[in-house]
Specification:
- The protein is an alpha+beta fold.
- Helices cover about 30% and strands about 25% of the residues.
Length: about 300
């Protein structure tokens, strides 16, 4: 029996407001294939793939856990830390002060995700992080300098700190742009390539972050012939955007990425989208009993498949 080819749709849900959709061709043999033993050698192509997937997961974590009213915080150092490890030590001190302040104010536990990077122009280490809202911005800034139990007193290595309240509703891609910037997934010339010490994680996060989740794959929504025709078109042309918009009418698609596998010659698509605002308003005002279908089954809500 020959290999039957089909197209798989895989959705990754980031809370209720975002989802990423991967559409790619497969065969029955690939579907039945078991996981092979991990190879010792990692090719440059595999390393690039790992890097891309890590940056995608970072953006998904941000979109799942942070939203309107939360903060983007950017601490800097007046004196350059002697090492990456020293910068990491000051970051953990700051995180402990934030946790204590939230507990004292009766707020929910701190949620955070942070990256330490080196600037291109200044070669100086600095920090980017997301934290959940609740504390006043001025207090969040002051805690960068404050040792617990003492008066506000700038410590010698610490520099300026900037905070920005998040307003994802003002942007078509929500938090995706700032998350991509923090992940280094951008063409901005001020960004330096990843230069972390060995065995250091790409980012530091709290243990209470919600994880994006992947729904059951759909192998019947698309045909291989239609995807082959679509693959001949540029990913930014009007026909391609219209095609995907019709497939996901409840979502606003802000990123369309087409990639070609040089070994198989097959094209796959990766879409990032945000739930349309008018549908969010409709969902919030919908009476509870309308969530059941005529058959009596409870329909999926929030980030479920439409």
């Amino acid at each position: 029996m020959g290999k039957r080819s089909f197209v798989r749709e895989s959705r990754t849900h980031c809370g209720t407001d975002y989802q990423d959709v991967a559409v790619y061709p497969m065969t029955d043999r690939e579907k039945r294939k078991t996981r092979n033993r991990k190879e010792v050698l990692s090719s440059p192509a595999q390393k690039n793939l790992n890097d891309r997937n890590a940056k995608r997961y970072f953006r998904q974590l941000v979109k799942t856990n942070f939203g309107a009213g939360d903060l983007a915080v950017h601490p800097t150092f007046a004196q350059e830390p002697e090492s990456y490890e020293e910068a990491e030590k000051w970051l953990h001190k700051y995180i402990r002060r934030l946790k204590y302040a939230r507990k004292k104010a009766g707020l929910d536990p701190l949620k955070y995700i942070a990256v330490i990077e080196q600037g291109t122009r200044s070669n100086r280490l600095h920090i980017h992080m997301f934290v959940n809202g609740g504390l006043p911005e001025e207090q969040v800034k002051a805690l960068w300098y404050r040792e617990r139990g003492t008066k506000i007193k700038p410590a010698m290595p610490l520099g300026l700190i900037r905070t920005d309240t998040l307003h994802p509703e003002l942007f078509e891609d929500g938090l995706n742009r700032i998350a991509a910037y923090m992940a280094g997934d951008t063409t901005d010339k001020r960004r330096r390539e990843d230069n972390r010490p060995k065995n250091k994680r790409r980012w530091i996060q709290s243990n209470n972050l919600d994880k994006p989740w992947r729904g059951r794959p759909n192998d019947s929504k698309y045909t291989a012939r239609r995807l082959e025709k679509l693959a001949r078109l540029p990913e930014d042309c009007e026909e391609v955007r219209t095609f995907w918009a019709k497939k996901y009418p409840e979502w606003s698609i802000y990123s369309i990425e087409k990639s070609l596998n040089p070994e198989t010659g097959r094209t796959s698509w990766y879409l990032e989208m945000k739930r349309r605002e008018n549908l969010q308003c409709e969902k919030r005002t919908r009476p509870p009993n309308s969530r059941r279908s005529s058959s009596g089954r409870r329909t999926t809500g929030g980030g479920g498949q439409p």
